[in-house]
Design a protein that fits this description.
Chain lengths: 356, 356
DNA sequence: CCGACGTACTGTATCGATACAGAAGGAACT
DNA sequence: AGTTCCTTCTGTATCGATACAGTACGTCGG
């Protein structure tokens, strides 16, 4: 029916191997024969070796699987995720490798099927809740993995490109504490996974999501060191890492008698939402209330947001390179990248009179 | 070395077929045997049937190839593209199918290799310049294709989900003409593919990119009908479909003696950039200069942008469905979706005194 | 003239699964 | 008892390529 290597081979009376070589190893046959083969292929509507068959035999598929949680649009909407993906795509594209976006559905069995069926040379995991049930299956696939969050999550075999989340958050906390703030709120995504934006009790044990957990713990480290009891901090869970949720979360910090003078957010996106909330209330960021973000996404600069700059595109790019050209030395497969504190206008000295 | 179906089969003394059935057709064997097989598999570190081998035999890979031009970040950055991709991903995910993002590099041979090597059940083409050299190869792969731009591009075999670009643009042109505007500029992406943002001569023959071409032709239809000679219209090419380019393009319409009173843009993103340019110059959109966009991306509403609303997510979703569940009737594989004119505050009556 | 070597091509085994026809055994019905 | 049918499993062919060893045929140095 459809043309295969054999069809072309029969047509010209040569062997299948030779036709294969015409495509994959041109130096193995004379230019004349190769030209005849290619023209016969064109005539017969043969588009080149079947990628699936080729992959089966050669053991390579030229694709990296990117695991995304069921809210796939997040990957396209969240600025940090977009930057990371772009870096990953660049590294992949440079090696003629494609990205297979794997959308993990809510249904667990379906998720396992998606992972099992994915023809990939490697997996890249980022922004995946580390408690997800299907992750063990990823490891059992036996292909290289790169992770960007909890460095311990997949054991020492997995490559890792990340930052010291906790130390970075600590710097934000120190910055705010040094400005004299004592009434502090923390807005964080996925402190608890209940899909509700509301204040939660400061019970750190609930921090199952690594990134949020480390960042919140970093804030705590800094505040405790500055003499701010952790119980005094208002902890607010954002249902999603979205600007609107940041706005809603901010209400819990602003619309109360003991209004926070500083709001630490676990992401720039949330912080931008908090800034929206300030604006609505006629409050000025950096004067009335200090706000910090995390990531330094492109929008942060225009908003004057004090934040931690992390190399998002670079993280993605390095992740791709670790997967496709893994260094011999295992130590070089675990990278912790530097970050920097970027102080802009949304943080300033505490001007509220000190409470008793 | 690595476990295969045969490994498990040998371990338990059953046939390979039975092990295969344990995974793919559980009704074909007794629950007890199946349980034994699965537990043996777990013990031997077998993660389930090799996806590549399965695909070769079954002829399905559960993936849709999405062609992206070399500027892959566009797919993640442009709001319309993000919406479309999201719809596509939703449709795919509902059928346990993944998206293979194919980044076409500048190098033509490499691009052909990427297309040839892509293991996919179908291709989705959107935002691909229709003159791209590798497109013919896509067709020759012989898998279903869905396109979203020029309905004629791939012949009647390709599915199509689009809108009547020209008629939609005409409505914008009519709207602006009805408001009395006669000094009009058009800002369009890819009028010419020279990577420069600048005024170009109104030579429509250069409009190789279908979408831009149709939209510009739609503007022309309306303006001609309203008695505005096409030669009088200032045509400005935007080097990229980005907000900044819109701002730069606007300068060519605004910083001149015969300033345009209306600027028609081929996308919301460009229009938002034009609005930025107005703001910088102290001009008010809708009063001093009318501006229109196209697409109705989420940001358009907040900006008060008059635009054409098109069902972006729906386009993607339908594209996915046409590929994965093609209707019998060929007529149902070619969908033209309705659009609507959304009039907001960036357009208003022409207040400039009429020139001679 | 002979062995060594290079070039151009061939032939078979193999990658890891699924499809499908078929076999063995027991239950059910006439 | 004979036939049919169902359940449960088996065995072989096949999907479409690549890997690799091998063959045929010069050519060339000694």
């Amino acid at each position: 029916m459809k043309a295969t290597l054999q069809t072309i081979a029969d047509e010209l009376g040569v062997s299948r191997s030779t036709v294969s070589n015409a495509y994959s190893r041109p130096d193995q046959l004379s230019p004349e024969l190769r030209a005849r083969i290619l023209s016969a292929a064109q005539r017969l509507g043969y588009a080149g070796p079947n990628p699936t068959a080729r992959s089966l035999r050669s053991g390579k598929v030229n694709a990296i699987g990117v695991l995304l949680t069921d809210n796939l649009s997040m990957a396209f909407t969240d600025p940090y995720a977009v930057a990371y993906l772009r870096g990953l795509a660049e590294a992949a594209s440079a090696r003629e490798t494609s990205l297979l976006l794997l959308n993990l559905p809510k249904d667990e069995a379906a998720g396992r099927r998606v992972i099992s069926n994915a023809a990939v040379d490697a997996f890249c995991l980022y922004c995946v809740p580390d408690w997800h049930s299907a992750l063990e299956l990823v490891r059992s696939r036996g292909v290289p993995i790169v992770i960007g969050e909890d460095p311990q999550a997949f054991g020492p075999d997995a490559s890792y490109v990340g930052i010291d989340e906790r130390a970075a958050a600590r710097r934000l906390g120190e910055h705010v504490a040094n400005l004299g703030h004592r009434d502090i709120a923390v807005v964080a995504h996925w402190i608890v996974d209940d899909g509700v934006t509301s204040q939660v009790h400061a019970d750190l044990a609930d921090l199952r999501y690594y990134v949020t957990g480390e960042r919140v713990r970093g804030f705590r480290d800094a505040l405790l060191a500055a003499g701010v009891p952790w119980e005094r901090v208002v902890l607010i869970n954002a249902a999603a890492n979205q600007r609107e949720e940041g706005t809603e979360a901010a209400a819990h910090a602003l619309d109360r008698l003991d209004r926070a003078t500083a709001i630490l957010c676990t992401s720039d996106v949330l912080a931008l939402g908090v800034l929206d909330a300030l604006r609505v209330r006629g409050l000025q960021a950096g004067r009335d209330v200090s706000v910090t973000g995390f990531d330094d996404i492109p929008e942060a600069e225009a908003a004057g947001l004090t934040t931690i700059r992390q190399p998002s595109v670079e993280r993605g790019r390095l992740a791709g390179e670790l997967l496709l050209d893994p260094p011999e030395d295992p130590a070089l497969r675990r990278l912790t990248l530097p970050v920097s504190l970027v102080v802009r206008s949304t943080t300033g000295p505490n001007t509220a009179k000190e409470k008793s």
